[in-house]
Specification:
The chain has 145 residues and is mostly beta strands. The protein has one domain: Deoxyuridine triphosphatase (dUTPase) (Deoxyuridine 5'-Triphosphate Nucleotidohydrolase, Chain A), CATH 2.70.40.10. 5% of the residues lie in helices and 38% in strands. The protein has 1 helix and 10 strands.
Amino acid sequence: MILKIFRMEHNRFVPEYKTEGAAGMDLCAAIDEPVTLQPLERKLIPTGLKIELEHGYEAQIRPRSGLSIKHGISLINCVGTIDEDYRGEVCIPVVNLSNEAYTINPDERVAQMVIARCEQAKIEVVTELTETVRGAGGFGSTGKL
């Protein structure tokens, strides 16, 4: 799979996998000055990147685990999807879920991007579904352990 990346003027870093076994590549904040997020505040952070995915792929934007557990910084939509036909700038919708302000600095790694294969389903409207043992049980219906 080839991921084409277009670096905009305000971008200084190309995403990269930090280890050989990494699933995601880090995305950096392409900002000129620090951005402070107050508790429960959300902002859109530019990356200075545009991408072109091959047919049948999506890019998933995910929080960085260190920022999430240490500072409460996550993505407002949990996991963002970039469709194969999107050609705009990749921006990161961050939210501060902590009780303290957090400052994102220029070039800071703010999210990770995972490239995944995806398919469009063929829709078939039916009058009934097959039965299963679980049935309609959800939201904890299988117990705690």
